[in-house]
Write a sequence for this structure.
């Protein structure tokens, strides 16, 4: 069982945080007597510079040969530097998501009690919060702009005296069904509750979404479920977050709501994600694992970025793609131990805590893991 | 200057909260020696039952004759009860917004210090928060489903073995420009900062949006501005809300973000809105004023709803459509006085406060106003 892990560090703080996640994977090898084959390739801005494309066919092929991908972040070019037609760093992510069929993006959010002080929410509102977002990742407005996808036109065009821009929000029943089914299966292994989020009083795609949820729900009579409008959900996430168990929603709503919910932990730097598709590996599912935060170019190279999102993404990788649940749990406990001891990167600093850099945070997690 | 105000109470708690707002308008007449002509008509579910449509042509015509509309709320039918083609209560709102050209929806958010206890956010994060959302209200995904608008198709259709649903997100340069210009003008009269929110790394319509913002900004060199991605904004609203002054964004992003931001005040029941268009009135602009909360059918008829959103909407009406800025300010101060004295509807209850019903809250605001 010599699993192959492909590391794509990417742009900005991506290389710094994936370096710490890699150290943690090495510590897992040592502590649990495992061996991983680790490869690494360029994506994003460096790949555009070196290879003329945000992700090369070779890199893509090597990803296809691996059991899992650990991804850092890719940076977006400022609007001014974008030429229509020219390669953009995000395309690496879109291509990976689309071509590997990663349709379910899991984002667990469980603020550690020892970190309530770092959150902008009052502790009484945070208490008991433990939810997983299941964001649809392969369709919707995100793919309205790819000319390669027929029937999903998107462009800026001139019409007589005005200019207009169009994006298309398209969902098929099959696309909705597979992600909703994943959400119900995850809920069955948790507290047994699904909240499906849409805007069914406005969108046709949401009306179809509700219809599919109602149908899939009948296959899971033991799981309770509810429909919630996206605007209501945006309120409830900061008001009564502990009421949620599994939240399933379409691509762009998932993007917005998970970033909002990340604030429950105090910083988006804390959060991991797993993107899962259809290919099975020896130990589970082929997947792409990445911190929820972006490339944060303003703090890149300053040893300031929070590596916990990347480290917890590595834990998800161990669990979902390699079938190493015990090892994953050990990583998560090591992280909890370090934050409970009061070590914090600057994004989640609070009075009484000890501020450490990216590298020291990673080293402390490694130490905690090796000592368990 | 005998202004005509059209009241459309609508569904659920709409009639209860507009009744209190009306009492406040009557108190303004008394206190300041004004006379308003007040009319009232059915919209929403009752209109569908009585007149077969969510808003009748007669009602519409009467609205057109008035200086301003005070709107309660309309309820959405559960998905199961919707027949395609049948009238839906929200159509009243969409028709009013579209046909009167209400393109700018203003939602001021300024949590009262005396109510920090009711918010789920910590006081240190709330401190100094005072922002206005300017939500585009006449275009985008909301109008992708109206068959009456050519070129914006939206439907659920069967394609061979699958079913798909499409919504269209379309913006013209002119539609973006007018709302962005309104935002810059408002910012010029406030702290002089505009945050424009989009998803320009994914949407064509957002790329066009940014381009227009950059252009309009050049007409307002004294106003500082920034572009922010919608996911980032969803974070910052609960992390550093005091950093915002004027936030301008497209229709659906505005819907989600304003509901999220409403939690800064503890309850969506606290928030007013003004929808402004192009027609001038004697005292300002013709407009539609409504609380941000919806019809809340679960608490309708129980004297529990918070009337402050509706009362503050009446204040915005006085200011923007009737040119009665002093009167508007007096209403706002009366509300502040009552909450500072510790009176709260149940949605914003906190320990030490006195819980009152919809009617008592309204009566206390009237009393405070008459005693000023
Ligand atoms: C970088 C960006 C295109 C991406 C997205 O919107 O999906 C990011 O925000 C995310 O959530 O992974
Ligand atoms: C009732 C609904 C259609 C409406 C909207 O989404 O615009 C409401 O949420 C609002 O914000 O006014």
């Amino acid at each position: 069982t010599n699993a192959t892990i492909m590391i794509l560090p990417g742009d900005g703080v991506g290389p710094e945080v994936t370096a710490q996640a890699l150290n943690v994977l090495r510590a897992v090898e040592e502590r649990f007597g495992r061996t991983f084959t680790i490869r690494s390739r360029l994506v994003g801005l460096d790949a555009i510079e070196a290879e003329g494309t945000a992700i090369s066919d070779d890199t893509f092929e090597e990803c296809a040969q691996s059991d899992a991908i650990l991804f850092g972040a890719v940076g977006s070019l400022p609007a001014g530097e974008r030429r229509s037609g020219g390669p953009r760093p995000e395309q690496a992510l879109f291509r990976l998501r689309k071509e590997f069929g990663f349709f379910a993006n899991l984002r667990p959010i469980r603020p550690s009690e020892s970190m309530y002080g770092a959150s902008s929410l009052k502790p009484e509102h945070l208490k008991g919060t433990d939810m997983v977002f299941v964001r649809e990742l392969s369709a919707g407005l995100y793919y309205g702009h790819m000319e390669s996808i027929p029937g999903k036109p998107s462009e800026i065009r001139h019409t007589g005296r005005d200019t207009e821009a169009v994006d298309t929000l398209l969902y098929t029943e099959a696309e909705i069904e597979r992600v909703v089914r994943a959400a119900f299966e995850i809920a069955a292994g948790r507290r047994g509750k699904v909240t499906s989020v849409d805007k069914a009083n406005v969108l046709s795609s949401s009306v179809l979404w509700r219809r599919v949820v109602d149908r899939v729900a009948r296959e899971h009579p033991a799981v309770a479920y509810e429909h919630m409008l996206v605007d209501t959900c945006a309120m409830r996430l900061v008001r009564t977050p502990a009421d949620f168990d599994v939240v399933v929603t379409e691509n762009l709503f998932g993007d917005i709501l998970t970033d909002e919910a990340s604030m429950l932990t105090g910083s988006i730097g804390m959060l991991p994600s797993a993107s899962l598709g259809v290919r099975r590996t020896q130990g589970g599912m082929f997947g792409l694992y990445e911190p929820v935060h972006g490339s944060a170019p303003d703090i890149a190279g300053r040893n300031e970025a929070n590596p916990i999102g990347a480290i917890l993404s590595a834990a998800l990788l161990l669990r979902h793609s390699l079938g190493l649940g015990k090892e994953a749990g050990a990583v998560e406990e090591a992280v909890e131990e370090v934050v409970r001891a009061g070590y914090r990167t600057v994004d989640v600093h609070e009075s009484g805590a000890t501020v450490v850099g990216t590298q020291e945070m990673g080293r402390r997690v490694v130490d905690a893991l090796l000592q368990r």
The pocket of 3-isopropylmalic acid (ligand 1) is lined by residues A 90, 255, 294; B 201-202, 231 (CB under 6 Å). The domain at 150-265 of chain B is CATH 3.40.50.2300 (Rossmann fold). Residues 146-153 of chain B have pLDDT under 50 and may be disordered. Residues 58 and 89 of chain B are 17 Å apart (CA to CA).
